[in-house]
Amino acid sequence: MEKGYVALILHSHMPYVRHPDVEDALEERWLFEAMSECYIPLINAFDNLNKDKIEFKITMNITPPLMAMLEDEYLNERYLEYLDSCIELSEKEIIRTKNDKKLNGLAHFYNERFKNILETYKKYDKRLMNAFKKFDELGCLEIITCSATHALLPLLTINPETIKAQIATAVQSYIDCIGHAPKGIWLPECAYTYSLDSILKEYGINYFIAENKAVLNASPRPKYGTYTPISTSNGICAFGRDMESSQQVWSNYLGYPGDFNYREFYRDIGYEAPMEYIAPYINRAGIRIDTGIKYYKITGKTENKEYYDREIAMKTVRDHAGHFADGRNRQIMFASEQMDVPPLITCPYDTELYGHWWFEGPDFIEQFIRMASEDWTNFKLTTPSEYLKQNPMVQCCSPSPSSWGENSDYSVWLNPSNHWIYKDLHRCEQSMIRLANTYKEPTDIQKRALNQAARELMLAESSDWPFIIKNNTTVEYAIRRVNTHVERFNKLYEDITKNSIDIKWLSNIEEIDNIFPNANYEIYRRN
């Protein structure tokens, strides 16, 4: 009999990287790689579990930008082209490696894998949201939302209307896609501050996922730490991240993904094959990029990598899944002896870790879920809403402002490298509020422009841009995205206020930045 519960929560997010105006946009590959390496393997795992009649409940946040891209006709057609290219390259690799038995076996593995991905993709009519909605309807997956464009909400509190717009738009886009309202929300970067709970309550959100310090440093101090949720005075519950289970996956030194038997992320034939051979399968501009075909395992801290062995990797997955399940068993056993309510271990992770950075990650999740259903475990998998339904009495505390970023504060997203962004954002936010309060009976064209201004503002507010700048990755792209959306917003503002809307230009950016078809500028109106 179970003595407690584990809530596995996957945060699935991609910034809005739809670029029909750019030939072979590198950033669209971020989405395609995640679809092939993370989302479809997880769908296959859930299908396998359902086929074997294994009951489970997990939670998955699918952010509004990702949801929109998974439903987008243009991106789905581009993904199909991407998959066809992967299959073609893997077939060439089978021929190229025919004289190396080990390498040839891996080439066959990738060929079969890509074909299986294509089969699953077509099975769900080239719309992955069809799969996730199916699991939601079956009751094994609870899908929660996020802010509209993954904006870091505590940094927008100077203009509360913008936070309301982010939440209202997220909830509406979720309903439009899933068919019912979300019960919970993944606050972007798990960033919380005072007053957010009242806005969440206004839009029907019951709970959010928080960094452990939001709960551990709450006032008053929670009786059971992160082993139970806490409730704000508004009745919105916060589920704090469990650090022991987190470290077993995330730790650079002790985390499972660094095991020497797992696939090496940084060795891809896109960088190693001769240019004349690989050119048709990388960026059309000749930029070398990942192809998804990686032949080596981590091996160790050496450049002399050994070939990947799938069979050994899967044995390691089973070992790690067993170790993880045993760890939760021990935690539950210890906590339950000290508590008068069932303990809950909240395990939130980025979905993209499972499959992209950690190739075997989706297999680990499947194996862990299988083990969680076995008699030797003393816990059951659950979702936050299910736990609250069974345990409605929750301690009232005020969560501490925090995030799951470095230092548990907001410094990753606000620092000398990126602070310039917020001056532009706040100016645009104030202008958007002014527009919403001024234009109460707009013409059809004005309404289109006003709604597009709202889209451009929300896209500029994405936390991905300051994050990328701080981490010094694709900095030029992030800066360009902020500036482009701000420039488009400013032109829209000027055209609207001067009653000189350029309809051709408006139609063009409506096609490019077509997120949130039901966007409503009136949500920025100040009461």
UniProtKB/TrEMBL annotation:
Keywords: Carbohydrate metabolism. Residues 425-524 form the 1,4-alpha-glucan branching enzyme C-terminal domain. InterPro entries: 57_glycoside_trans_central, BE_C, Branching_enz_MT3115-like, Glyco_hydro/deAcase_b/a-brl, Glyco_hydro_38_N_sf, Glyco_hydro_57/38_cen_sf, Glyco_hydro_57_N. The keyword Chaperone does not apply. The keyword Aminoacyl-tRNA synthetase does not apply. Residues 7-321 form the Glycoside hydrolase family 57 N-terminal domain. PANTHER family: 1,4-ALPHA-GLUCAN BRANCHING ENZYME RV3031-RELATED, 1,4-ALPHA-GLUCAN BRANCHING ENZYME TK1436. This is DUF1957 domain-containing protein.
